[in-house]
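Hey, quick one: can you model this chain's 3D structure?
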Amino acid sequence: MLFLVGVFYAVNYLVAKDIMPTYIGASGFIFYRVFGATALFWLVHTFISSEKIQRKDLPRFLIAALFGIAMNQLLFFNGLSLTSPVNASVIMTSNPVLVLLASALILKETITPTRIAGISLGIVGALGLITLPIVLGYSDKEWTDGDPIGDAMILGNALSYGIYLVTVKPLMAKYEAMTVIKWVFTFGCFMVFPFGIEQALEVDWANMPTATIWGVLYVVICVTFLVYFFNVFAMKTVSPSVVSAYIYLQPVLAGSLSILLGYEKLHWIKILAAAFIFTGVYLVSFHKKKAPSAT
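Sure thing. Here's the predicted structure for all 295 residues.
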């Protein structure tokens, strides 16, 4: 399931980029994405479960909806509408580092010196991708693929999604996966409504190309409904750090597709930023202490 999530997201960088902002504004796209997926969650939940949530858990559901639906999606799609697929996918690899920070603050997970080094490298890489083009004075012609504001939004998206993964984990230990995600999206609908309703009403569906409509359906069904359900279902058996680790598939797949299709080209800043981030996330997520010697 987590592997499929990585594949869905990687393709999404290219699909969503072609739709926004030509046919649908970023915030309007989120409106359709959240409301469409919520309807699917309610429909499926009606047939498979009658589980209800307790009132005392509402604050945690609201926090999960704020960071996992509203902030996460609004920042990502608005950021992607400004920057490039490669930039977005590279910055998103900082997510495991941010998950570790959130785990330490919320779940009180211990951070070792090795992980601190990883966090530092990950942050340097992500921020470098955003700021180096400005510091080095690249012109639009030399740096046409990225956008500092868009990159900053993607970084904010990664942080909010990290907080969401940590926040939703305790709910997964108490409720069924479909129950959790149904209510998280339901509360998320109220949060994204004022930001997306205006752009949503402006969409000219009658004159939208058929291929674009299929792209919208792909985002709603695969990148929203299936991705969020697969992630919360996976967290029944794995930790938030493992879920976030699968995000490393995204820059490899999204970058390869984007370059093969001629959307953009590689740049030494992107390669350097990716090296910092990949090294950082390795230290955070995959480095293991050596076993003590036998005595």
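One thing worth noting: The two ends are 42 Å apart (CA to CA).
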